[in-house]
Amino acid sequence: MKESLHASVRLTLDIVAQVLAGTRAELVTHEVGRVISVGPGVARVRGLAGVQAEELVGLHGGLLGMAYNLDPDEVGVVLLGAGNALVAGSFAHRTGRILDVPVGGALLGRVVGALGNPLDELGPVRTRERRPVERPAPPILHRAPVTRPLQTGLKVIDSLLPIGRGQRELILGDRQTGKTAIALDTILNQRGRNVVCVYCSIGQRTSEVAELLTHLRRHDALGYSIIVTASGDEPPGVQYIAPYAATTIAEYFMEQGRDVLIVYDDLTRHARAYRELSLLMRRPPGREAYPGDIFYVHSRLLERATQLRAERGGGSLTALPIAETQSQNISAYIPTNLISITDGQIVLSPTQFRKGILPAVDVGRSVSRVGGKAQLPCYRAVAGELRLSYTQFEELEVFARFGTRLDEASVATLERGRRVREVLRQQQYRPMPVAEQVAVLMTAGEGLLNAVPVEQVARVEQAIRTAVTRQLPKICQRMESGEPLVDEDRAELLRVIGTVLTVAKKAAP
Ligand SMILES: Nc1ncnc2c1ncn2[C@@H]1O[C@H](COP(=O)(O)OP(=O)(O)OP(=O)(O)O)[C@@H](O)[C@H]1O
Ligand SMILES: [Mg+2]
Which amino acids does the record list as binding ATP (predicted)? Predict the structure, then answer.
């Protein structure tokens, strides 16, 4: 009896010894402090003496914050989630980590929050790697000039304001002028072109993002896209980090040698979130109450867009930041900052939008500073002349409105200009292939449409597009692949266009 008891005790001890041998006791130390006050989106913490700038701080209930203001005796923490449950007196601890997001191919087709958390119903995001949200921009030595075009599929942009891969082009306009539409059409146009698209929504309503998602899905564009969103209901800290997180996600693909497009919709709301944060942190306000470092906040972000050299994989990150203006005031603080950081701007005009001249691009006030070098050669046959004569036309049109008597040449410029404007119009969600764009613009630019009544231009345009794609597939393909338009190609194009115009004339009542 006694012996069997001894045996069983020995056995138990053996088991305990085995279990202990398999485990390793580890002492994890956390520097712990206490929350002393909680405000909307921010908290003040005392007792985290060793905390570093931008280090993650663990708060009550698994909530994370980011150390932001390091004052001698307390830390201002930006909350990265809803802080409703947070109360003064609760514990806070250092994590020793900085903010990072998951990166990888598994994110394609997904909708994630600013911390990389999935927001769609497709379950967890299965990535292997995480990278910091804030990363330094590629150094100059790793960068190459912008030489390859990024086709938007929009006639007015591809011909007059071409965008190159690795460029940063600002989309600027008042409320409801078609800013998002331009970015969305550009994303749709990347289908089958091997470009990864990241759309970063900042401070929008959830319903707006849901609508965008529907369009991406409907046009078969979700497979190569990623949506990163921080809605207007989220704390300012989350909205503030969203574009940096989206850029980190985009850079992963660029560093693999891929071409990537990123849209920030929009940086005005981003600036507002940052302003709110800074005011809550009691940082001194400057112009328009924005903190003094708002310029740095945006330049640090947009500097990350680039074309990498071939030795670095040759990938590119093209950025289309969007900014909202008030009453077309492009010299307000945030728009001017962004204009000076980017390589050009597409300015949208509410007047044009009201008249239904869409996309409402104000050609005279828009510019693309580096894209010209990247434009496909076939556009050169049409673009230079077109831009100049179009701007002349716009000036003349204002003048003609006063009932001035015009000479014959001016009347011809007006007639041609009206038709050029007509062909620069484009329906939303209908990006147009290169060759069709060139054929249509050539027709208008050469004044061949002058005999066609303005209201019939759209119909003739469609006929030209169909004829050119059907009858000249080889020339179309050569244009698309970046070959210049030789004289014979031009003659062939004009011949096909001529036939269409003759038929159209006969058919006209
Ligand atoms: N080329 C176009 N053809 C037809 N409709 C268009 C075109 N571009 C934009 N729209 C329509 O105009 C409206 C406003 O466009 P959009 O939402 O892109 O503007 P926004 O400037 O981004 O607005 P917000 O300031 O609210 O963000 C939308 O209903 C859109 O469908
Ligand atoms: Mg918008």
Answer: 173-180
> Across-strand partners of 48?
none
Could you tell me the two tokens for 453? 């009544």
Per the structure block, which two tokens stand in for 38?
């909680």
| Residue 5 pLDDT | 66
Binding residues: 173-180
Ligand that lies nearest to the alpha carbon of residue 324, given by its number in the listed order: 1
Do 91 and 37 have their domain in common?
yes
181 occurs within a structural domain: yes
Q: Which residues are annotated as a binding site for ATP?
A: 173-180
Q: Give the DSSP letter of residue 371.
A: G
Burial group, residue 134, by CB count within 10 angstroms (0-12, 13-18, 19+): middle
Q: How many domains does the chain have?
A: 3
CA distance 504 to 81: 62
User: If you ran DSSP here, which 8-state letter would residue 2 be given?
Assistant: H
The answer to whether residue 18 sits within a structural domain is no
170, 175, 179, 362: residue to mutate for ligand 1 pocket, most atoms within 8 A of CB: 179
pLDDT for 509: 64
Based on the fold, state whether residues 210 and 296 are members of the same structural domain.
yes
277 and 191 within one domain: yes
Q: Say what the pLDDT of residue 20 is.
A: 67
| Same domain flag for 88 and 165 | no
User: Ligand 1 centre and the CA of 201: distance in Å?
Assistant: 15
Residue 499: what pLDDT?
Answer: 95
Report which secondary-structure segment, H or E, holds 394.
helix 377-400
Specify whether 59 is located in the same domain as 112. no
Q: Is 175 in the pocket of ligand 1 (CB under 6 A)?
A: yes
User: For the chain, what's the residue count?
Assistant: 509
Per DSSP, the three-state class of 166 is coil
**Known catalytic membership, residue 369:** yes
Considering the domain architecture, whether residues 349 and 416 belong to the same structural domain is answered as: no
| 219 Cα–ligand 1 center, Å | 17
Local structure of 196: helix, strand or coil: strand
Residue with tokens 């910091």: 132
Q: Are residues 70 and 118 in the same domain?
A: no
**Structural domain of 44:** 32-98
Distance CA 432, CA 154 (A): 6
What stretches in the chain show pLDDT beneath 50? none
52 lines ligand 1 (CB under 6 A): no
pLDDT number for residue 270: 98
Find the farthest-apart pair of alpha carbons in the chain and give their distance in angstroms, rounded: 125
**Ligand 1 near 201 CB (within 6 A):** no
